[in-house]
Design a protein that fits this description.
Blueprint lengths: L4 E4 L2 E4 L5 E4 L9 E6 L3 H8 E3 L10 E9 L4 E11 L10 E6 L3 H13 L3 E2 L4 H8 L5 H12 L3 H11 L2 H25 L4 H4 L2 H21 L4 H5 L1 E7 L5 H9 L17 E7 L2 E7 L9 H16 L2 E7 L6 H10 L4 E6 L9 H7 L5 E3 L8 H12 L15 H22 L4 H19 L5 H8 L7
Helix pairs in contact: 4-5, 6-8, 6-16, 8-15, 15-16
Length: about 475
Amino acid sequence: MDNDLQKTGNRQLTTDNDTITAIATPTGQAGIGIIRISGPLSFEIAGKIFRPQNPDRKLQSHRLYLGHLLDPSTEAMIDEVLVSFMKAPFSYTREDVIEINSHSGYLLLSRILEIVLEQGARLAKPGEFTLRAFLNGRIDLTQAEAVIDLINSKSDRGLALASQQIQGSFWAEIEGLRKKVTGLLAHAEVAIDFPEEEADILSREEAANQIRDEVVKPIRKMIKAHVNRLWVDGVKTVIVGRVNAGKSSLLNLLLNEQRAIVTPIPGTTRDIIESTITIGGLPLRLMDTAGFGKATGEVEKIGIDLTERKLAEADFLLVVIDQSRPLNTDDLRIISRCREKKALMVINKIDLPSAFGQENEKKELSGFPMAKISALTGEGLDDLTKAIVDCILESETDMTSSNAAPNLRHRQALMDAVRYFETAERSTKKDAPMEIVALELKSGLDALGEIIGETTTEDVLDNIFSQFCLGK
């Protein structure tokens, strides 16, 4: 792949010859801060601002050197630093790269960055270092996206999945499929050119079986593996219930800390309180919400509207029901809404006498998994955490069988691809013209190419790399 140009579909993306720089570590007081520089002026800039401790020693690539960082305009020493030199193409971006390891602190890092900018570099855009790594052919698009997953992962398993993807496991799966489809497409195109010899090249039945078994089935399996994203992104878990059912008490119990205000006064929670916890290895993004009920003011109405929105967006619901009060219309409304979602009924306040009988409980809550607790005393907490894990992981998908953790963009491209390949399979069986089969195979091939960046538009790349932080 050319260092300055990559074709993506009918568009061309170019990397300019600018030298870019950014602070690559979070600003704040810490032991070390890193300023990264990439581009043709990197070594020249380093030569102007860095004085190695041993000036007679020849600087080599992929070595760390101790010395002083200077302001060339005044020759004033700014800091004692370690500088690493990485010669192209053996660097993250496949360009000349310099990394300055200084002491940390917002003012110090900002001053060093300012000096680098004064020497001819420009400030990097979010994700621009990784974008250059992609455009220069060092990584494919799935590996670039895995960098985001590695940074944002919410669990150990999520870290492992992202690490495998960075190593190219997902790319290898997609590339393997592309090779099989390319082979089938070649047979189809030969059959178009030599129709009288079509049966000798590859029978219709054999071709249809290959499309089904070697392409469609593996893609379907990968689409199902999208469930693995919960290990990376966390399960968006919303705690819902009527006013004063004990939602905030449940949040505090699960977090083992006082995050939400708990009072006997109905409607205390009016905003969304969010925290991330791990239960049984599963990362849960817990959200406590305002209770369902009749709003008595504008603030409560806004809180309930937020609850409605979060309920619609949730991956998993913890529905808190106060067993010390009879079910009312608010409870029934929530239960009805939850039948469209994966939900666990949390019967709270078992330390108090029950106000609804087993018949009522069985009728209204039928079909839902259930756990009984006292958020006040902690009774039933172990049963609740087990029920949460069982409920979330209830799936026919074997989440340990694949290295892939397709994100939403990957999943959509896979679904587009499988539709084309299934049409190609049907067309092959029905003796449709091979031109139709070839067209469907090529369309499916393009959809797979979108995943790894072979046929990706500039808008898609902008959307992906805008999610990165500065310095990455």
